[in-house]
Design brief:
single chain; 393 residues; mainly alpha; two-stranded antiparallel ribbon
Length: 393
């Protein structure tokens, strides 16, 4: 049997947008790096480099959301919980290592060297004194081991998604009911983390995450550009990975599940296995994105995992155009950067005489209005406009 022309074409030939995206991302990364304070030019401030690095991480989790929703048809309102879990996993090591250095320096001048137990007690008091404790909870058993905590970045979101997805999909929960279940999971996790006895400092969360061990003498300008480059690399690899998946036979099946799940099941495919794979792998990628995001943010607390964050994520994907990987990137980048500008005081207030518009108060209204307008008049999102521009006759 001879192959069709489309089958003989290379992956890039079938998906030229992948090459365009990687080229644009590479050029953007080089420009920001050259203009950063770490490179000596100072045209882009360290704080803005961090903002851009965080935006790249949000683009990565938006791609994961697009694959699970835009391609597979599962509207998950819990993927930002996986994002937060990844942040907590790496944040535990960062906070432990930073506190250990502080304690070691403070005890170094003693005549009698402190015992390992005294050092451990001092570290525990520094970390958990804010919640009235000094003992390490069981979940901090491996907080001193970077490699184990990095493994947890992948394993914990993946395991949670695997268990939750298996229970939900085997029961054939679909549509809005599945969305409610994912939202309930996220809410339950957030409420648990708000408790002081959760072992993660309750509402205080984990702080000081921007102080990376080994970079104490380098300064935040170097730290920011390192994480910016790591975030850009993760986004490039994530985009390439999901583009490969959606272009494969697996991608065709999950899109068919989105369009007509009953028919795919009738054709003999085990629908639940495909949905479980997509749900789990996107949760893992979301965890990786979170592990890169929060060291740049410097702090993580349970509010980051609240259901509203996952709703925002869905809004970003809808605005960018679901079912298009570059649409998810556009939506996340545009909305997250505009959010930083409006809520960070960058947008000037407008005095109308009888009333002054402060964009900090009106940003969510503007975001909601944009979502409604795009849903009504441009259901394919911003990405759909690019489709029209490059559509071949």
């Amino acid at each position: 049997m001879t192959q069709t022309h489309s089958q003989r074409r290379s992956f890039i030939g079938r998906n030229p947008s992948v090459l365009y995206f990687l080229a644009a991302l590479g050029l953007f990364t080089v420009l920001v790096t050259v203009m950063s304070e770490a490179a000596g030019t100072g045209l882009v401030s360290t704080s803005f480099v961090k903002t851009l690095g965080k935006a790249l991480c949000l683009c990565l989790v938006a791609i994961a959301m697009d694959v699970v929703w835009g391609y597979c048809g599962i509207l998950s309102l819990g993927h930002f919980a996986f994002f937060g879990i990844g942040g907590y996993a790496i944040g535990m090591w960062l906070m432990y290592a930073r506190t250990e250095n502080i304690v070691a320096e403070s005890l170094a001048g003693q005549v009698i060297p402190p015992t390992p137990q005294e050092i451990s007690d001092a570290i525990g008091n520094q970390i958990f004194g804010v919640v009235g404790s000094s003992e390490f909870p069981l979940i901090w058993a491996f907080a001193d081991n970077l490699f184990i905590q990095l493994a947890f970045v992948v394993l914990i979101p993946g395991a949670l998604a695997l268990v939750f997805g298996w229970l939900a999909f085997r029961s054939r929960v679909n549509g809005v009911y599945l969305s409610i279940l994912t939202q309930a999971m996220t809410l339950a996790l957030a409420l648990y983390l708000f408790q002081n006895d959760s072992g993660l400092r309750g509402n205080n969360g984990l702080s000081g995450l921007q102080n990376i061990p080994g970079f104490a003498e380098s300064g935040q300008d170097v730290v920011s550009i390192v994480f910016f480059l790591a975030s850009a690399l993760a986004l490039a690899l994530g985009y390439l990975f999901f583009a490969w998946i959606t272009d494969s036979k697996l991608g065709s099946v999950i899109q068919a599940i989105r369009d007509d799940e009953s028919r795919v099941r009738f054709l003999g495919y085990h629908v639940e296995s495909y949905k479980l794979f997509v749900f789990t792998i996107t949760a893992i990628v979301a965890g990786i994105a979170g592990a890169l995001y929060y060291p740049q943010a410097g702090i993580i607390n349970p509010a980051e995992i609240a259901p509203i964050a996952s709703i925002y994520l869905a809004v970003w994907v809808a605005i960018g155009g679901r079912g298009r990987l570059y649409g998810a990137v556009i939506g996340a980048a545009v909305v997250s950067l505009l959010s930083s500008w409006f809520t960070g005081g960058g947008a000037p207030s407008i005095n109308l005489g009888v009333y002054t518009i402060h964009w900090v108060d009106w940003w969510l209204v503007l975001l909601g209005l944009s979502f409604v307008l795009i849903t009504l008049f441009a259901p394919k999102g911003i990405g759909g406009l690019f489709d029209k521009l490059v559509r071949k006759p």
